[in-house]
Design a protein that fits this description.
It comes from Streptomyces daqingensis. The chain is an alpha/beta fold. Helix content is 38%, strand content 19%.
Amino acid sequence: MPSPSAASLGRSPAADRSREQWADEVRAAVNDRPLGVGGPRRAPAGRTGAVRLPLDAGLRAAVARTAQQHAVTPLTVGLTALAVTLTRRTGTHHVLAAAPDVPVALAVRDDLTRAELLAGTDLSLKRSAALCGAGAPAPELPNPLVEFRFGEAAGSLHGDREISIALRDGTGAADGAQLVALHDTGRYTEDCVTALLGQLRTVLEALCGEEAVTAGALPLLDEAGQRELLEHGLGEPLQQDGPEPVHVRAAALAAAGPGDVAVVCGDEQVTRGELDAWAGRIAARLVASGVRPGDRAGVLAERSAAMVAAVLGILRAGAAYVPVDPANPDERIAAVLSDAQVSAVVVTGGAEQRVAPLGAALVTADDPAVRHEGEPLPLAETEPGDDAAYLIYTSGSTGAPKGVVVEHGQLAAATLARRQVYPGAPVFLLLSPLAFDSSAAALWGTLTAGGRLVVAGPDEFRDPEALLRLVERHAVTHLLCVPSLYDTLLAAAERLGPSRLASLTTVITAGEALPEALLRRHVRTLGGHSSLVNEYGPTETTVWASYRRFEDAGPVDIGGPVPGARLYVLDGAGRLVPPGITGELHIGGAGVSRGYHGRPDATSRAFLADPFAGGDARMYRTGDLVRWNPAGALEFLGRRDNQVKIRGHRVETDAVEAALRACPGVREAVVVPDAAGTRLTGFVVTDAPDTLPAAREQLARTLPEAAVPSRLRALTALPVTVNGKADRAALAELAERREPTAAEPQSAGGVNSPDQAADPVAGVRAAWAEVLETSAAVPGDVNFFDLGGHSLLIIQLQDALGRHTGVRPSVVDLFRCSTVDAQATLVRSGAAGGAEAAGTSARVEQARRERAARARRRRAQQGAAR
């Protein structure tokens, strides 16, 4: 039977259009978190709690006076205050409420005056009441989750209703007015509702006050609440004023104990006195080459004791060090050092040719003449003041590198804070590359505390089993790494025996989110003698800003402020956000860096005046979404932009997508991370999918390794959301779907099939297909890393090879032998005489080639000198 027309019901088409437009506005104002807290919306549990908050007689009278002055009802005044409260808590401009049973969509903008706010609420209320009546069939509308009443009891929690608030007069002579809230006890605690009513009362007081205000100026927190939040975010004071620069303190410790071992790498041990003299000779050569205080000097060095001497020597010369990762492509290294305008580059043997085109002065830190010959440069008598200590480069939003300038004062303060949190002289295992900002934590936190720095060498840092041997051999007490790497280290410890890590007292994870499962694994494996500390901090605030120490398993958060730091959770207008409500983290205090080198616009956008500290204090706007939990700690909730962490490295997907779009044949591109934060998948719209391997090679020449997508997938079109934007959630789900592989392992134990054991090439290909999650045939001469492999996948590949071939080569050998054919040779050698023998042969050959290369360079240099 056809539906009756509007005309047959006596309604005009215009009235129907108006009614449907109103219904759309109501539906658009629905929020899954109507109070700005809790998880996604769900049906009430059926249990109702009640919370009452007294109001003084003056406020009740002010509500009546304000209503009279603006020709509205007291209900409109209360509903306006509720709208302001809810929009602040949810970070939106539109909310849905009921007054008392009519759904009302309310809009709040910060620039609206009191009169405009009240008039807008009054109009919305009258419009909703009119359109809900008139005998017309009711459109399908969401049941408002928040109800407000005036002068009557709060309504029952029917349907999806979660909270009903009433502003009531006293019921007896001794009673005053009060706010009463009925709430779903399964969704909200009494403390949560009490806090909401307190904020509503604060807004109501300001809305009905004498001073002219706009919506943006209405406070959500009273003065006591603001003071409490500021105290939450205030780190303990630093224990000394004006901490000395890190290289000055390291030199003082060298003078006090020159025979103490400072750095260990492989079989090499360097005492404090030797390290100080080595750094002084590097400094002398830098000064002789023209480096002056305030200049910048690059560091391109493999993980070694020479790398440590290099950065100390640069600081001693009065320059700032600019570390670049040898794993990066030459074009990326050149881009970083050119942007930094370095006057010189300190390298270790073999890297000279990679930076020769720059034309900068070169000092080879591990040259025996540099280490042992010549007079060291004396330590400068004058302090460096606000001079830069280092520049570390992160991914830029346009794809160009962006250097963060950290001054001596900021580095000294952050390092002093580290000594306060981790007292004593640690034996610290340095795992981070120098170009990774957390290297500053291990390097300077150890050298300025009188500890011993154990540097994982170029091979050792890749191999969890080698790292276990380092910890055991040197009785390492502290280490810092990204959670994904620590997970592989624990897996190796579980396989070889947790006693290998018995010396560890402190494990620090940083750089990416700490999974709760990893915390449980740590407690299960090392619990009782080792604490796990979750550190958080951007490069822009000198490595760290907050930390949480865990002795037992439990919910994960990023804790509270480090000494000398100030943490603020703010909304989009820079106002403090109450506990439990999501806001953006801003960091102030002694560790806030100078800004971005040569990028004043980017600096002014991210580094803001700190209104809570006053004076010339600044704070850094992180872009990270957080909230204070009931325990006074910060919960990390994600990013407000498209920046992600891949194996601890900051990657801006916008930059990767821009680089992809510049590749031939690519029309559109979107990049998404995997759930574990270990790799990127790029989805591209292209008519020539066969060109994608070349596109990936082009990216690998210009982008850091972590920013190069492990996989590129061709699509005919990108999925889009209802507003026409690329549907990143759908693409992330697609990226997690594993493609069928050529061969899957049958068990975690043995060889996948007899054929694969007999044919090493087939076994290696099957292992690659499993780890790289591809069904495509793998050529014998293609590099594992060119197909999307990375350091963590190599560890998985080692296990997969054991299953598919029965031989488990060392991680180091897999890095060196990185094609199917080369790894098949490893497998054959391992099957015949043990993988260790094959690895030894490979290492001997590699060492022979390196010695020959060094000899050729020395002969060339001597010839040039003659």
